[in-house]
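Example 3.2
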Amino acid sequence: MKFISWNIDSLNAALTSESARALLSRDVLTTIRSHSPEVIAIQETKLSAAGPTKKHTEILKEAFPGYEAVWRSSVEPARKGYAGTMFLYKEELQPEVTYPSIGSPGTMDSEGRMITLEFDDFYITQVYTPNAGSELKRLKERQIWDQRYADYLAELDGKKAVFAAGDFNVAHKEIDLANPKGNRRSAGFTDEERQGFTNLLSRGFTDTFRHIHGEVTGVYSWWAQRAKTSKINNSGWRIDYWLVSSRIAENVVKSEMIDSGTRQDHTPVLLEVNL
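Structure, written as tokens:
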């Protein structure tokens, strides 16, 4: 089976805008479709609380025929049009869908950050992890989130094997970003966030990319848009992951980034597994 995860950074823009970046985003969607994955996880949809519009739904149906869509948006008291997640899955799969709340601080549980699909023998869950923010204003809340999220995954893992995808907003090791020395106290590379990810893995989960590729360097999933040469220079971060329950890690066949051409920001990540 193939699963793909991508932080799209505005589903509406990707589907309806005619900007140069939107056209690149649509090229990425075409590439994703060409892999014919069973499940597609999408983060940072930025949709309204009402979810996809009729136009969005029609475009998605045309772009991904034979797929069902489920979504979760940011709702009050959280900011409007913020965060948000969506799954597309082949319609014959028919999983049970849940929208977890994990007891996170502030408005995090209202920001549409998690959806879980339950199948007969496993779960697929996706997350758009809260960013620690400028000046690390949200770092303490982020640490609580990391603990609650680890507890949630461990709870699932106690029932069935877990596949956990998404934008985790952390580069775990120095080899997971191009400039570790210059980003010591940057959001996504603080000691606290890195330790939170270490703690998550210690609960019985495996970073599939490292499982397959070992200590390879120079492979990233995100390049800053505001730095025009970030992708040209490969000055990136690996912050998007597929994690699996460690007991099924040997079933993983492939874990890799999908080429998104010249488009900066996030690139999709692919997981192929024997089930």
